[in-house]
Structure prediction request, 106 residues.
Amino acid sequence: MKAIKLTEEQQNKLLEMCRVLFPEYRWYLGKFLRAYIIGNDPDLYKEDKSDIKIHWFELCITHLRTKLNLHHDDMYLTTNPGIDTFKHTVDYLYEEFKKLNYGKNT
Prediction:
């Protein structure tokens, strides 16, 4: 099975959604999606307390889907390559994100 990858445009969309929907974190994309808690307490920046590492796909199907109030069935349709209407998960979520009046192009 071929891995689902992110284009640069999809990476930007994902980071934009994360930064708007979860503003309490600073988001970075490397091998994993990483987030750091934002706050005034310098102890929060110690890696063991604030460093979150999550695979981008896991974040999409759990946290972003929930935050955008999407059902599991909606996400299934976007991730099954056997369906003719295949759309990359990040692209689908970004469309839903824009429908809620978030995002640059709304």
User: Anything to note?
Assistant: The helical segments are 8-21, 47-50, 56-67, 72-79, 89-99.
